[in-house]
Design a protein that fits this description.
The chain has about 240 residues and is mainly alpha-helical. The protein contains eight helices and no strands. The N terminus is likely disordered.
């Protein structure tokens, strides 16, 4: 019912490029934990509360799903208007959500509304994997704006000089992309096999579990990499 919180979408990051852009992203001043909590509250918790609140009021499944899933779409539009620019990931998400919403409006099928969320998470996963062909993979581009300047400078040096560091960035990007692909497949299966009213909550639970697993894997992998390179691990 809700799109996955956009892991890379932080406060005004530089647009992630798919080829040859070595421009360094600006620092953001907000912690990853803060951004994750904000995304979870606005893109997961709030739509869930609206859906189940509407169902308690007697609203039918299809309409409750359409209205609740419109909240993340409204937030994306608001960000684009507020920032007076549209980042590539935001434009990508908007196009998928708008087209999927149009299809669901034409069919009136609540299961199709549920399944449409898999389109977004699948394409996000594919997009993450596609950055392996870019000058910098997803994990590198998404993390750089969140780092202190000294750490960011160290990352730039490591990217230029340490092949193992470049390989680690690509391994982590594959892990994140694969997690979103797993989420997409599971959402389709749930949408067409489970009771409609249970799917939104189960989908949110699945996303939460996957994010916890992939974040912990990333932390563990980063610590091992830091040990091999003789660097202090980032907290």
């Amino acid at each position: 019912m809700k799109p996955a919180p956009q892991v890379q979408e932080g406060p005004e990051p530089e647009s992630t490029t798919l080829a040859g852009d070595d421009k360094q992203p600006e620092r953001t001043g907000r912690s990853p934990r803060t951004m994750l909590v904000e995304a979870a509250a606005l893109d997961v918790a709030l739509p869930l509360l609206l859906f189940y609140g509407l169902r308690l009021m007697g609203v039918n499944q299809w309409l409750a799903l359409v209205l609740s899933s419109a909240l993340p779409l409204v937030r994306l539009v608001y960000r684009a208007v507020k920032d007076r620019r549209v980042e590539r990931p935001t434009l990508f998400s908007l196009s998928i959500m708008l087209s999927a919403t149009l299809v669901s409006l034409l069919t009136g099928d609540p299961r199709l509304v549920l399944a449409r969320e898999s389109y977004l998470t699948a394409l996000v996963g594919l997009w993450m994997l596609s950055t392996l062909l870019a000058s910098r993979p997803f994990i590198y581009q998404a993390t750089m704006p969140l780092l202190p300047e000294a750490t960011a400078a160290s990352w730039r040096r490591d990217w230029d000089e340490v092949p193992e560091f470049r390989r680690a960035m690509r391994v982590l990007t594959v892990a994140w992309g694969t997690a979103f692909m797993i989420d997409a497949v599971a959402r389709v299966v749930m949408a067409y096999t489970l009771p409609v009213d249970s799917v939104p909550l189960l989908g949110a639970g699945l996303l939460t579990v996957l994010l916890i697993v992939i974040v912990q894997f990333s932390k563990s992998y980063a610590k091992r990499l830091s040990a091999r390179l003789g660097r202090p691990a980032e907290s």
